[in-house]
Amino acid sequence: MSESFTADVIIVGAGPSGSSLAVRLARQGMDVLLADARSFPRHKPCAEYLSPAALPLLGSAGLLERVRGAGPELLDGMEVTAPSGATLSGRFVKGEGISLPRWELDEALVDEARACGVRVLEEHRLTGLEIPVGGRVRADFESPRGPVAARAEVVVGADGLRSAVTRLAGLARPTPTWIRHLALVAHYRVPDPLPPRGHIVLREGWYAGLSPLPGGRVNLSVVLHDGTGAPGREGLRSFFEQRLDRVDPWEGSLARREADGPILASGPLMREAVRPYADRVLLVGDAAGYLDPITGEGIYLALESAEQACRTLTAAFTSGRFDAAGLADYGRLRRKTWRPRRRLSWLLQQVVRRPRVADLLIGYLARRPRAADRLVSTAGDLLSPWELVGPPGWRDLLGPAHGRGRAG
């Protein structure tokens, strides 16, 4: 015999976007059902970095204390090393970023959701979605105990890059054939302390990222511009290690690294739904769209989309309008914040794909710390991308050279 549930809102996917939205809605008195295909704690490929602007969003959702309680590492900026060896070092203009293993972050957010009264269903995989005209949504799940049906006024897809909600709601858009990025991510232990900032190392055809983690661990990633060049599972560790041997800009601090878990893969790394809403459907986080991780904005964008979705759903429950027209404000909110960042991400991709351009730009910025701080703070969501091209940005960019970074 199958189980059945009713709720005001069904959220599919319990990552940062889904869990934070569940907490926001529950604190407004809504009955929320939060379902995930996996059990917690879980591991997934992620840079495990939260930009400084993500912390106020955690605070407004009432989640910051829970996340700080997990003991994250504090980061004061980012460094980028060009193929030539030139390194720009940018500091955040205010606040700090944090890094935390993804399984610890997700578990902390899910625990807070439970504490707020959210019903959490683990190991529930979405298999069907019915959206009748003028009626409540029906979501069908498969669980270890058998089939489960749930009904609600709205279903929210927060289930990531390959969102079942996006596909079943007819909102999926084919991935462009030119996007073949593949990210490989793994944890390592290192004996020596690392600088309190993230680091990206650019190479021809790929780049690597480093994010210090608590307890002497580090998140190391390799992103291939053309993922078709990656080996199979058997040769993956050797392939990964060979690239890490070429990207140690920390004076040998990674030379004595020890693997601390498997290599996880994710890709292609840029997707966008046809639109992030439909009749009785909203898409948040990666389910709505995903930018290449070069800017490290994934978790911030997930939390931001949850805040925007909460505003839209609050208005919808007040008006009783759950059709596409009643949820369209979410699309407007998302476009306003998403488009400038999408353009910045595209621009940065053009730079990292061209080693000579990267060498020139990073070498130039390495001698202009104020411009480097502005770029890093924009990527950290503290400044609007438009501020890079406004008068203050140009003054910093064209100002006299003096140095904090390394010219290579």
Descriptive notes:
This protein is an alpha/beta fold and 408 residues long. The protein has a domain of 190 residues: FAD/NAD(P)-binding domain. It is built from 12 helices and 23 strands. Strands 6, 7, 14, 15, 16, 17, 18 and 19 form an 8-stranded mixed beta sheet that branches. Strands 9-3-2-13-22-21 form a 6-stranded mixed beta sheet. Strands 1-12-11-10 form a 4-stranded mixed beta sheet. A hairpin with a 2-residue loop joins strand 21 and strand 22. Helix 1 packs parallel to helix 7, helix 7 runs antiparallel to helix 8 and helix 10 crosses helix 12. The longest helix has 29 residues. 47% of the residues are buried. The mean pLDDT is 87.
List the helices and strands and how they pair.
Blueprint: E1 3-6, E2 9-12, H1 16-26, E3 32-35, E4 49-50, H2 54-60, H3 64-68, E5 73-75, E6 77-81, E7 87-91, E8 97-99, H4 102-115, E9 119-121, E10 125-130, E11 137-143, E12 146-152, E13 154-157, H5 164-168, E14 182-189, E15 197-203, E16 206-213, E17 217-224, H6 236-244, E18 258-259, E19 264-266, E20 271-272, E21 277-278, E22 281-283, E23 289-290, H7 298-319, H8 324-352, H9 355-366, H10 369-379, H11 386-389, H12 391-398
Parallel strand pairs: 1-12, 2-3, 2-13, 3-9, 6-15, 13-22
Antiparallel strand pairs: 4-8, 5-8, 6-7, 10-11, 11-12, 14-17, 14-18, 14-19, 15-16, 16-17, 20-23, 21-22
Helix pairs in contact: 1-4, 1-7, 2-7, 7-8, 10-12
